[in-house]
Give the backbone structure.
Amino acid sequence: MKRQNYSRKREAILQALQGTNTHPTAEWMYLQLKSQFPDLSLGTVYRNLAQFKTEGSAVSVGIVNGQERFDGNTSPHSHFICTQCGAVLDIFKPLYAEASFSEISQELCAQVESCDVLFRGVCSDCLKKQ
Amino acid sequence: MKRQNYSRKREAILQALQGTNTHPTAEWMYLQLKSQFPDLSLGTVYRNLAQFKTEGSAVSVGIVNGQERFDGNTSPHSHFICTQCGAVLDIFKPLYAEASFSEISQELCAQVESCDVLFRGVCSDCLKKQ
DNA sequence: GTTAAAAATAATAACTATTATTGATTTGAG
DNA sequence: CTCAAATCAATAATAGTTATTATTTTTAAC
């Protein structure tokens, strides 16, 4: 039984990503795992996150304040980004945008493969602080 | 009549952005305008684009291949991004995602202000080339 | 368990898009 | 024209990310 693409750090990185709903940055994950793996390198986090993306075990939410945000939840859902604190929240309510794949494909004569819906605004925590 | 925030270069940058549907990068705009304004600086393009965004006369489509893409069309519409060539295409078909503002607001106890819908796939040109 | 090839990593350097700085130029009302 | 405010060019600086390379870890056959 050949277990390719395995290392304890890679496994820990993926588990840390799947175990949070904060949609973290590479740097945040690096700092989180640094205590458990004192010799962890930031480059390793970046490299593994990139690999998770191409493998499909992680997705990118987008870039918030100059930093890419990752999501280990690959089930289809949308996101809300707080323009004040940068928090990224999940929205699991279906939005019918995916239902437009075929129509968009026809309109553009293109092959539509995915759809991201991003809401922006002020989150509840930031509203309270005002 | 006070004409604040005016300069021939700023006007040219905005007109160039509004006169294309390619959703260009700052660098693309710089190269486009360089022939007309030989002493134009890339920093000036970046600074004006940032100002257009805060003023609301331009919006950001997102970051494609590491570069921010801008749109001078501020009417609500969606976008398709080709994952092969990086082209950004407009989609004017309404997608009913905006209709979910109030529901999302309730679900998150947040103040939703905008919504971006991004489709990804392979554009017609790239499909032909395969 | 050993061992050798393959894969992954740490540390570091390099890259690149973007932003900040600063001194010079342009703008427009008086 | 004059002057203060706005804008700009040129340059340096910043910061997120990627590439490099020597070292370490993992793997699977022995």
Notes: The longest helix of chain B spans residues 42-55. The mean pLDDT of chain B is 93.
